[in-house]
Amino acid sequence: MNTPQAQSIAIHPVDGESWQQQLANSPFSAKALLEWLELPNELLAAGEQGAGDFPIRAPLAFLQRIEKGNLQDPLLRQVWPLIEESQTPPSGFVLDPLGETSSNPTPGIVHKYHNRVLLVVNGSCAIHCRYCFRRHFPYDDNRLSRQQWLDTLGYIQQRSEINEVILSGGDPLTSSDKRLFDLVAAIEAIPHVKRLRIHTRLPIVIPARITDALLTRLSQSRLSVIMVVHANHANEIDGNVAHALRAIKQAGIHLLNQSVLLKGVNDDADSLIHLSERLFECEVLPYYLHLLDPVVGAHHFDVSEHNAIALMAQIQKTLPGFLMPKLVREVDGRASKTNIPIPVNQQD
Fold this sequence. Notes:
With 348 residues, the protein is α/β, with parallel strands linked by helices. It has two domains: 68 residues, no CATH class; 246 residues, TIM Barrel (Alpha-Beta Barrel). The protein contains twelve helices and nine strands. Helix 6 links the parallel strand 2 and strand 3. The protein is globular and about 55 Å long.
């Protein structure tokens, strides 16, 4: 990923800062983050080692939701490198767990599923999630000029079966409005494309990115626009995030959430129930609950399929069906995500 050099944290109010300023201020050194979050010094060596492989990045708007000094805080665990990252991973944990490099037929495109393609808009994220399945993705090989983007869109134009384009990355909303709007316009010009899906963590980690200009442009699209956000725990959704999410929905954009089941973050029934309830309060429907993609550096987050099924059986005793995310695993080479059913004898 494209990552500016880590910097010291300058504590200042987030309110009033543009989303671009917040994004620019999001990379931190392990030492600066440890000191600001009042973490024990014995964590520093692991933090620095992990940051050397996959730099620390998190906006202050997100960090302010973390309880200082709490090593078990579910948001802290998503961004702080633990010593387990550098340990030899178990068998099956690989650099490219979803086989995306073999589904990368032309720079900028991942085409795994018959009627939809994913565009790697950029390699930049506002936050580096320590469990990220693309932490080793070759973004430099997929960094395209404007003309190359136009050439890449020819791949879609030539395939009439493609009716949905997914913008991903990195995070597509770290792009400037001009670049993003130009890309949307180019996609709109392809007659057989009906839907535009935007996968983004920005509304959660930098809610200021949801500007009037962005919402106006997306609401005017001829395409059916779906925004898939990514929150793993209800503590990620503060008042500013809730306001941004409701504004997206009010603009006529379909709004879904996908989460990853993470050990020590949300692998208990109460956390998953509270997340679904909080999302619905903000006009968001739970979509997927992913089992961890087995990427090198993230094995300590893994929750077994057996335990995941037991959790789903628990939460469906409380949640209505429309608030139940689908439990899924993505498997390299399969034509779609793999739904994981709950056995009849475990259902309510």
